[in-house]
Design a protein that fits this description.
Blueprint lengths: L15 H19 L4 H12 L3 H8 L1
Length: 62
């Protein structure tokens, strides 16, 4: 079944470029951690995800 109208989403509250940069950094650190087995990347990923980053916090609220 398809809908006649496009699905509605929340309006953007942050710049899309900021989200892309953050996601690129997270993905890069994840690959370095789990594929390349670089322990410093694991520490960087953990630190990035555990800090009070406003972009990450905005997702937690939704």
């Amino acid at each position: 079944m398809t809908l006649d109208t496009p699905l509605l989403d929340f309006p953007a509250t942050q710049l899309q470029a900021s989200f892309r940069l953050l996601m690129g950094e997270i993905i890069s650190l994840f690959i370095d951690t789990h594929v390349r087995h670089q322990p410093e990347a694991s520490q960087g990923l953990e630190q990035l995800l555990n800090t009070a980053n406003p972009l990450i916090k905005s997702f937690e609220r939704k």
